[in-house]
Amino acid sequence: MSLLAQLFPPGVLRPMELGSDGLILLTVAGLLFVLTRYRKWGWLWREWVTTVDHKKIGVMYLVASLVMLFRGGVDALLLRTQLAAPGSTFLGPEHYDEIFTTHGTIMVFFMAMPLMFALYNAVIPLMIGARDVAFPRLNAISFWVFAFAGILFNISFVVGGSPNAGWTAYAPLTERAFNPGVGENYYLLALLISGIGTLASGINFLATILGMRARGMTLMKMPLFVWSALVSSALILFAFPALTVALGLTMLDRLFGSSFFTLTAGGMPMMYVNLFWIWGHPEVYLLVLPAFGIFSEVVSTFSRKTLFGYPSMVGSLLAITLLSFGVWVHHFFTMGAGAAVNAFFGVSTMLIAIPTGVKIFNWILTMWGGRVRMTVAMLWQMAFIPTFVVGGATGVLLAVVPGDYQFHNSYFMVAHFHNMLIGGVVFGFLSGLYYWWPKMFGYMLDERQGRWAFWLFFIGFWVTFMPQYFLGLEGMTRRMYTYSAGFGWTTLNQISTLGAYVMGAGFLVLVYNIVWSMLRGERDVTGDPWDGRTLEWSLPSPAPEYNFARLPTVTERDAWWHAKREGGAVAAQWRAREIEPIAMPRPTAVPFFIGLAFFLAGAGMVFSWWVVAAVGFAGVVALLVRGWFDDQDHEELSRDAVLRVEAAAGRLQA
Amino acid sequence: MCRGGAHCEKPLRGRGEPVADRPSGRRRPSAGTAADRNSRTGRPGRSFARLLPAVATAAALLTGCGPHYVVLHPVGPVAKSELHAVEMASIPMAAVFLFVVTLFVIAVLRFRDRPGNTAPYLPDWEGSRRLEIVWFAIPILIIAFIAIPTVRTTFALDRLPPAQDPLVVDVTSLDWKWLFQYPSAQIATVDYLKVPTGRPILFELTANGPMNTFWLPQLGGMEYTMPGRLLPLWLQVDKPGQYWGRSGNFSGVGFAHMQFHLDAVSPAAFTAWVAGVRQGDPPMTAADYQGLLKPAVVGVETYSGYPAGSFPTATHGFTLAGGMYTYPPSS
Amino acid sequence: MNTPLEAGRAGRVPLEFSDHHGALGILGFWLFLASDVVLFSCLFAVYASYGMRTAGGPTPMDLFHYGPAFAETLLLLTSSFACGLCVYQLRRRSRNGAAAWLAVTMLLGLGFVGMEVHEFASYVALGATWHKSAFLSAFFTLVGTHGLHVSFGLLWAGSLLVQLWRRGLNAVSARRLYVFSLYWHFLDIIWVFIFSAVYLAGRIG
After folding, report:
1. CB-based contacts of B52, cutoff 8 Å, min separation 6
2. Torsion angle, CA of A638/A639/A644/A647, rounded to 10 degrees?
3. Which residues, in sequence order, are bridge partners of residue B324?
4. Domains, chain B
5. What whole-number distance in Å separates Cα of residue A499 and Cα of residue C94?
6. Residue A149 and residue A146: Cα distance in Å, rounded?
7. CA A198 – CA A206 distance, rounded (Å)
8. Which of A590, B66, B199, C191 is 20 to 30 Å from B318 at the Cα level?
């Protein structure tokens, strides 16, 4: 196949794709122009590309995830537009298949995961009273590896062709025999590379939380968001290797002719399904547990009350983590595992509802006897409770194995998992975003605009997905690019599409909210705009580079809340003689180049350009070895420098 | 000490501690924090807007009686049993939802941060062993209530009805069509089935290509068709008529067109049909079969015979032992 | 002698644990090893499922011979022992001793990799490529992944030798050496499982 034909197959030359290419070029050109005109290249390099500061890395993750939310959302709108009318020719089958694949892959891997890491990076070290994460350079490597993997995935529709086998990429549909072309290679390589970054982050946050807590902060005195990050990082550690194997073996089949999931030579496609879901189920808990952690923080802060039942909240997090490894077959009850296996996994799936229910009751009881303030962050929590309970209830219905025989792969299932992922994960992360935004950026997101964004998104969500439960009962299967009028599915599909557009409007208002507030938003002058309870609110907004001028000592939960009660205004101040010089990790360009090297390696593998791939991998190894010889990775921040920053923030006692 | 016009109520009960001072430092201290502004206005519109989704859902629910809701209109014992299992589980789930939402709404309304709210303020109320035991125990009971019949039905569905001779139909999913073979009658059809009513039908499922699922929603739940494996599924239809079926697992560009229909007729009519096919329709040649393997959507076809070996023998399949599926350990 | 650093310098605490960052690094590496255990577990599971799926091609009985597998085992286990002696020298604060035993570890490891490459080449010459069957795919991937891990470890050990020579023994190089030894012993354990589940089980039944 000629190089041109390989790079530009028909799927890449459709009007929609070419139009998007044009938009991307314009955007990139615009960015380059702005950076050059305002002479920001040096700033970009020094402050962002080479940074190892967890707070900045968090901001970069956030920007990436919002851009990906846009792309995944546009994909969703395209899908819903196609389904609004029976027999629609808006999207042909090949196009539709590519779009639902990229929609799912982007939302899970390049929107939800980075948004989670954005919040972890922004806040976890601050909450535990640490100056940074355990391995700052590894943190930067994680980000750049993820970013370049995301770029690799996103250029698939520009050159080579998008993957089209669904975000689950079941064999043997992904085998070369049924899927020639490079689309699936993009999927496999981008996720394998991005998985390396994710695993590294999991290790990083586990070590950070286990080894860098402030003095006196025992595990049972940590904020619950930190607990949720701990268990979620453990889930990453134990689940992602299974995905690596599932995708890696598929890649070996496609690129190197092995016989793992082939139709002949003894291959077993069902092996892929098991490996994928052994990762896949813990993955969704990995995403929702931090959302639970955020809700615990938000509910107690905005009810002005201590969280109800802290020990059982921790216990249920641990129970959910353990149970999540014991339910994966519920993703394929209909694959002939037999009644005994199906029954076991059906019951184990139902069991997860129990610790989750405990948490819901504890959140409601946290409000009970408190004083509830309806900020936008709290509104998201209010929306979460009824939405998530509906999703959980339908989950139990899906766990009723005979019911799943009818519901599997239908729109009932699609509605359920969007219910959990949007109603749980996205609502939770947006709540956290509005809650911690002032800490990250130093200004508030406007509350009124936030309420508009919230209502549009919340109502839009219900209008989009509630009809889909009924479409499932009407027998509509997922991933169908069109349907005939005789099935009676038209009206519900139209309602669902309308809801999707309302959600899109909500997203636009959110973006407007961010941009407007950046320019005209209320500055957060005190560092504690919500009358918070945990240590991050004891710092100025945004926090100084070193976080804490003096590392705190903690004696109880909700340390900052109690410090304020006992110390009043002086709780956040220190005396000059308490300040000492601080060792800060040095910025380094190596993580950026490691990401770039992975990109080269990945691109080479995608197109079977072995030389390019070899150069990329050699580059990764060379950069790692160079890192091993780099001992000068810290520099000292002088006492005077620290005093100056603290004085400017009004934190020095006279 | 209260500042800036923010509400300054002291609780009537509880620890008696005043609401903590909010830090000033706003440019307009008299307006209080954004959070205070929200709570002061009370926002009555919220309650109404929150009813909207509930109303929409109720409206949609009311249409559940329509004939398009195929899952809710079973025509055979398998689908009936599956629907019954779901209905049984829906009742406690609906009750849980109502209870949680009620408790939640009460909490939100009663404990709003409004000036003059006389509800008790208990800022340090950390937990209640008794309450937690209650809402740990009740979900366990509910889950047990749902799980026990679930397990029973799951095992029951793997069992063919006793004392009845099933009609065996071999099903192969292809790109993008369905091949049905009747080994007892040695006839084959593409994209449609004819079966007798009132008799269990044992489908032996396989694929020659990517995985699909074989789904006739009014007859019962689906089962995967996988290459290199043979999976059993028994269904039965008690009411004559035509019922649609389709693939439920994405298998490529023609996937949405993998539809077929099932004609349920009386046993006598079925026998007559089989006889008619054997006499009237041409047999499937090897070339015909190869043609079916090509990726394309074809129309309905009928054959009075098919090449030997066009359906895999059960090497990694299953056996029927006493009317129950058993899977050999090696699969 | 309040801080771990002082205790480390006085020999009371192992050198690699004497600074907080070092201790964190070791914790982080244990966490990485946990994830690697899961990776190998999945590969073992694949091999266990595919062990019989020879699709009419070469079977484990046809391919595996006790001799080479035993020799590879001997080489790797001895190199792990040498690695242990290297850490012993580290405890004695002997830079030259640690470097010497690290070199021995590397040589033996190199021998292992060489034998394994030769083994794979011999199978390919017989026509037993991974295209032929699921069993062969699983075999080459499981054992090959282990071999790649060992090769990467050799590169790592080489760079450690250079670091020892240039910078001597301090808290940082001690930690790196200790972490390498954890990695090396881990690979040894995985090999024991491979030897049992692949070669022994293949010959026995």
Report:
1. A459, A462
2. 150
3. B159, B321
4. 29-157 (no CATH), 167-307 (2.60.40.420)
5. 71
6. 5
7. 12
8. B199
Interface test with B, best of A162, A173, A530 (most B CBs within 10 A): A173
Q: Any bridge partners for residue B203, and if so which?
A: B169, B233
Q: Do the beta carbons of residue B190 and residue B177 sit within 8 Å?
A: yes
Q: Do B101 and A386 touch (CB under 8 A)?
A: yes
Q: Does a cis peptide bond (omega within 30 degrees of 0) precede residue A172?
A: yes
Q: How many CA atoms lie within 13 A of A211 on its CB side?
A: 22
Does residue B287 contact residue B123 with C-beta atoms inside 8 Å? no
**Three-class SS of residue B177?**
strand
CATH 1.20.210.10 fits A58-586+633-648, yes or no: yes
Closest CA to A428 of A224, A222, A230: A224
Angle at A368 between CA A365 and CA A372, to 5 degrees: 115
**The pLDDT value given to residue B38:** 41
| CB within 8 Å: B111 and A303 | yes
Among the listed residues A612, A605, A609, the one whose alpha carbon sits nearest the alpha carbon of residue A252: A605
Q: What residue segments make up the domains of chain A, in order of their start?
A: 58-586+633-648
Using CB atoms, which residue from A369, A400, A481 is nearest to B121?
A: A369
Neighbours of A481 (CB within 10 A): 23
Structure tokens given for A176: 């070369």
pLDDT digits (tens, 9 = 90+) for B302-313: 999 998 878 876
Torsional sign, CA A202, A203, A209, A213: negative
Place of tokens 């992904």: A174
Q: Is the peptide bond before C4 cis (omega within 30 degrees of 0)?
A: no
Token pair, residue A305, equals 């009350």
When mean pLDDT is compared across A206-215, A524-533, B319-328, C90-99, the lowest value belongs to B319-328
Q: Is B45 exposed, middle or buried (0-12, 13-18, 19+ CB in 10 A)?
A: exposed
- Domains, chain C, in order of start with CATH, read 37-51+63-204 (1.20.120.80)
User: Can you tell me the distance from the alpha carbon of B258 to that of B83, in angstroms, rounded to the nearest whole number?
Assistant: 25
In chain A, residues with a C-beta closer than 8 Å to the C-beta of B226 are 269-270, 335-336
Residue A242, classified by CB atoms within 10 Å of its CB into exposed (0-12), middle (13-18) or buried (19+), is buried
**Structure tokens given for C109:** 């490891």
Q: Return the residue matching tokens 């509350």.
A: A447
Residue B122's nearest CA partner among A393, A303, C99, A497 is A303
Subunits touching C (CB < 8 Å, at least 3 pairs)?
A: A
Side chain identity, residue A586:
R
Q: How confident is the model at residue A397 (pLDDT cuts 50, 70, 90)?
A: very high
Residue type, B272: A
Chain B contact present for A583, CB below 8 A: no
- pLDDT above 90 covers a percentage of chain B that reads 59
- Neighboring chain A residues of B67 at a CB cutoff of 8 Å: 488
The residue to which tokens 């590397």 are assigned: C106
Give C132's contacts in chain A (Cβ within 8 Å).
Answer: 259, 265
Cα dihedral A7, A11, A12, A16 in deg (nearest 10): 180
pTM of the model: 0.92
Dihedral-angle region of residue B209 (phi above 0 means left; psi in -120 to 50 means alpha; beta otherwise): left
pLDDT digits (tens, 9 = 90+) for A56-78: 999 999 999 999 999 999 999 99
Q: How many whole angstroms separate alpha carbon A596 and alpha carbon A576?
A: 44
pLDDT digits (tens, 9 = 90+) for A282-300: 999 999 999 999 999 999 9
How many angstroms separate the CA atoms of A341 and B329, rounded? 13
B176: preceding bond cis by omega (within 30 degrees) = yes
Tokens of A67: 């851009």
ipTM value, please give it: 0.94
Q: How is residue C93 annotated by DSSP?
A: T
Query: Which amino acid appears at position A273 of this protein?
Result: V
